[in-house]
Each structure stands twice: as structure tokens, then as C-alpha cells.
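Sorry to interrupt, but I need a hand with the structure work. Could you write out one complete protein record for me, on any chain you like? Just paste the record in under my message, thanks.

. . .
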Amino acid sequence: MLNLSKTLLATSFALALFSQASAVANVTVPHIQGKIEKGPVNPHGGVSALASPPSSTNLRLWERTDYQGGCIKCQKLQYNTCYAVDMGKSGLSGPNSLRFDQFDTRDGYSALTFYDGATCNGNWNRMSGVWKNAAIVFGNLGQWGGNLRSFKIADFFVPSEAGHLPYGDSYAKTICKKVSSSECRF
């Protein structure tokens, strides 16, 4: 588990570093692969020429790697709120790949934290960065595949790191729903 934590921390650091370096950066480290696309972001996938995208945030999770199989979509997410991920409820396995669209046009840090507990507890991994109009994609969640059970998005700086939190929130919103294959394309 310690090696996974170090790997995930290195990934978070690399993602933050690459997001500042160029418009589109591919990141590959052991066990997890990611890419950050700087916007504006098209809510249906990819970077678009929209002048001012909506101020909302979405997360899509696929049951297989490389964005294959069925997916669920978590829409209009709020900051600092715990959200449950239960793909089994939709008859899907996983998640094994994801896309995080940060449509918020504000300047400043955001952080995305994944947990293996259902109420933002247990083992966690966090990545932070300035992601104004950015899409963060992971085609392979590696050892986190199938283990992501909840997440939170912060609208302030917190270090990119990994750890363990025995107690989480008392409640997790369950807004993530299975969507059609056309909404899963990217």
C-alpha cells in the first residue's frame, strides 16, 4: 500500500506540474495514466472553442479501462461535498477509467480527492492544481480500479498527497447515474 501511495502522490505531482507546462500533457507513471487538457472544455468531451463554458463540474466513470463499457455521470457537482460512487447500483462494474471536467471559470486552486470508503473515508489520494476550464482524464486507474467509492472536490489549495482517514462524512450524496453511450463518448 505504501508503494501505491507513493505512486499516486508522484502522479498527482506530475499532473499538477504538467498542467502548468502546456495545453495538453500526457502523463504516464506506474499503475496510473493521466492527461490534462486545458480549455475551454466541451462538456461532451475534448477541448472546444466555447467562449465561456458553464460554471459547473462533471465526473464520468467507466467500468473498463480506456473509457470502455458503460459509464455513470456525476453532474453539477458542488465544492466540499462528499459524493458516493456506486456503479454496481447501475449494473456496472468498476470504475476503471474517468474524466473530470472542471468547467469553473474562477481563478484559483481546486483539488480532487478519491476515497475507497463510501463516505469519503478510508484510503485516499488527492491531486491539486489550477484547473480553470480543464479536463483531467485517466484511461487506467491501475490499483485504484474498482476501488473508488467516493470523492470530494475542494475549491481551495490542499497538497497533492495520499493517506488514510478512518472517519469520513456522515453522509454522501448519490447523484451519479448511468447515462447513455452517447453521453459517455469522448
Notes: Residues 1-33, 39-54 have pLDDT under 50 and may be disordered.
